[in-house]
Design a protein that fits this description.
mainly alpha; 62% helix; disordered N terminus
Length: 203
C-alpha cells in the first residue's frame, strides 16, 4: 500500500529523501534501489525527487559530500572527571553499544558509511577522502592518552601507537559482537586498559 503523500517544506522534504536514500542504499545496495522505491519509502511521487536531485547519482554525490565535510571536522571528546581512563572507558562503552547502522558522530547520517560502501566507485571515493582528511585518531584519542600520561594514569610510550591499538580493539570488539551477538561479547574496557595502558588498580 502506497504511503500517503503530504506537502512538506522544501528543506524538510530534501532531508527525508536523503535519509531514506541513505538507509535504502545501505540495506539494499545502490544499484538495487530505484527512484520508484525511494519515492514510495519517502512518501512522495517519483517526479518530486527530481525537483531536488537531478538523478539517483546526484543523491549519492550529496551523501559523499557530507562524508567529505565530516572528514575535515575535528571530533572532540571532553575529558570526564579529569581522568583519561574514565574518558576512554566512556568512549569505548558508547562506541561498542552503538549499532553499526548508527553513528556516534553527530555530523553523519546513520548508515552513511554503509551506503557509500554499497558500490565500488563510492567506496573508493569515500576511502580517498578518509585517507586525505584529518586523522581522527590523532585528533581525538591521542590527546586523551597524552593527558593521561601527564597525569600518571597511563604508562609512557608512543601515544599514537597506543591510540591505534586502542581504536583497533574498540572497532574489532563492535564488529565481532555485532556479527555474532549470541556467541561473542565485547572485551570489557578494564581488560583492554590493563593490556594497553598498564592502569594500576587500587589495592
Amino acid at each position: 500500500m502506497e504511503k500517503k503523500k503530504s506537502r512538506l517544506p522544501g528543506e524538510e522534504r530534501r532531508e527525508i529523501l536523503l535519509d531514506t536514500a541513505c538507509r535504502l542504499f545501505a540495506e539494499n545496495g545502490y544499484d538495487k534501489t530505484s527512484t520508484k522505491q525511494l519515492a514510495a519509502e519517502a512518501g512522495c511521487s517519483e517526479g518530486l525527487i527530481y525537483k531536488y536531485f537531478d538523478s539517483k547519482k546526484a543523491i549519492m554525490d550529496t551523501l559523499l559530500a557530507e562524508w567529505a565535510a565530516a572528514q575535515n571536522q575535528k571530533f572532540h571528546i571532553e575529558i570526564i572527571d579529569h581522568s583519561a581512563i574514565s574518558t576512554l572507558r566512556d568512549h569505548y562503552n558508547t562506541f561498542i553499544s552503538t549499532s553499526k547502522k548508527d553513528t556516534i558522530h553527530s555530523n553523519l547520517r546513520p548508515q552513511l558509511m554503509n551506503a557509500l560502501n554499497s558500490t565500488p566507485y563510492y567506496r573508493q571515493k569515500a576511502w580517498e577522502l578518509f585517507t586525505t582528511g584529518k586523522d581522527m585518531i590523532h585528533t581525538t584519542i591521542v590527546p586523551i592518552i597524552e593527558f593521561g600520561q601527564k597525569q600518571g594514569e597511563i604508562r609512557q610510550g608512543n601515544s599514537q601507537l597506543l591510540a591505534n591499538l586502542f581504536v583497533g580493539y574498540m572497532v574489532g570488539a563492535r564488529e565481532i559482537s555485532g556479527n555474532f551477538p549470541d556467541r561473542f561479547k565485547p572485551v570489557p574496557f578494564d581488560q583492554i586498559s590493563d593490556m594497553l595502558f598498564n592502569k594500576h588498580k587500587d589495592s
